[in-house]
Specification:
The protein is an alpha+beta fold. It contains six helices and four strands, in the order αββααβαααβ. The mean pLDDT is 97. Strands 1, 2, 3 and 4 form a four-stranded antiparallel beta sheet that branches.
């Protein structure tokens, strides 16, 4: 959720406000910089960068995972810990991985960065990897936990 928010600190502050003293606020989100696909798919890096631009134009941040510690700190939480949890195609299959991590990007890549047809063609190549038993993909989930003082 935080990747879609224009003001994630304000949301974290509200989460802290409604949590009792000593309670924990937990935020789990992702960071596009951790997306890897093997074998490499031409154009995928451009799709990922384009989705970052598109998300930013809508007020979000596709690189929010790395910022969760700072967000919770600025929201006034203490004893903050961040864990990184891998999410791979081995866990759900390549098609489901692509659905979860990449499928929606076609809707947010600005056409001046990459033509919609090129985005779709790139994503089709990723989906085609579902038939390649040697293919593999990963991203990372960032889980930040802070205590309300």
């Amino acid at each position: 959720l935080f990747q879609h928010l224009p003001h994630p600190v304000a949301v974290a502050q509200e989460m802290a406000r409604v949590t009792k003293t000593g309670g924990r606020v937990v935020v789990v989100d992702t960071d596009d910089s951790a997306i890897l696909v093997e074998p490499p798919v031409p154009g995928l890096e451009e799709v990922i960068r384009g989705s970052q631009v598109g998300q930013a134009r809508m007020g979000g941040d596709r690189l929010v995972g790395r910022k969760l510690r700072r967000i919770l700190h600025e929201a006034g939480l203490v004893d903050i810990e961040v864990q990184v949890v891998p999410f791979t195609s081995d866990m759900v299959g390549m098609k489901t991985f692509a659905d979860i991590c990449l499928g929606f990007k076609a809707m947010i890549v600005p056409p001046e960065i990459m033509a919609p047809e090129a985005v779709q063609a790139t994503l089709r190549e990723v989906y085609a990897l579902a038939d390649d038993p040697g293919s593999w993909a990963q991203t990372l989930a960032y889980m930040a936990v802070g205590r309300v003082p």
